[in-house]
Design goal:
By secondary structure, the protein is mainly beta. Helices cover about 10% and strands about 35% of the residues. It has helices at about 15-25, 100-105, 150-160, and strands at about 10-15, 40-45, 50, 55-60, 65, 70-75, 80-90, 110-115, 120, 130-135, 140-145, 170, 180, 185-190, 195-205. The radius of gyration is 16 Å and the shape is globular.
């Protein structure tokens, strides 16, 4: 898969059970005062896309970044999935879980995209995906997609009720709770069976 093949990339918030459990009563606080009843989405525009192996710049205002290991569903046509790809949905640490500010998530380079597209169909079931997040050679997180609140096909069906995902659009399945942090010169690698490996080094803005 190459970047020109991608359309709009959408992220999904609060789609892991661990994340909802950790938020607990916060979901009933103002301004929303209730847990979301539909998928909560946001956009990662093209300025955020970074290829596998390319360094990612960390702004000088931030000492660290939050790693967001996830899988993106790449669309073949409305309602039809072409395949799945590793993604690292980076964000600056923040306290707003329902609606993270754009300035924390849509920074240049803050979406690393794998170069292995696993075709959909056959024996491919997204609930079987298990990602390992490795920072500087050490395992920092394991993400199991069996823990999704809305499994991949349910998420796609619910999103399709209010918007159309066209060919090349990507819907990320979500990021689990307990996301590791990375600092300048840290090497972040995300890998999974059949999905390959996605690795990038964080570099300070001044370098």
């Amino acid at each position: 898969m190459s970047f020109p093949a991608m359309g709009t990339v959408y992220g999904t918030l609060m789609n892991f059970r661990g994340e909802l459990q950790a938020l607990g009563p916060k979901m009933n606080e103002a301004p929303y005062k209730a847990p979301p009843k539909a998928p909560v989405l946001y956009i990662k525009p093209s300025n955020t896309w970074t290829m596998n192996g390319v360094p990612i710049m960390l702004p000088a205002r931030a000492p660290e970044v939050e790693v967001g290991a996830t899988v993106g569903m790449v669309m073949k046509a409305p309602g039809e999935v072409a395949g799945y790809v590793l993604m690292n949905d980076l964000s600056l640490p923040h306290e707003s879980f329902f609606r993270p500010p754009v300035k924390y998530k849509c920074i240049d380079g803050f979406l690393a995209v794998g170069d292995t597209l696993l075709p959909a169909g056959g024996d491919v079931d997204p609930k079987d995906f298990v990602l390992e997040v490795i920072v500087n050679g050490g395992l920092k997180q394991t993400v199991s997609f069996a823990d999704l609140v809305r499994p991949a096909q349910q998420l796609l069906a619910e999103v399709s009720e209010f918007m159309t995902l066209g060919a090349g659009d990507v819907l990320m399945l979500g990021c689990d709770w307990g996301r590791p942090r990375a600092r300048p010169f840290d090497r972040i690698e995300i890998k999974a069976e059949r999905l390959g490996s996605l690795a990038n080094i964080m570099v300070p803005e001044t370098s």
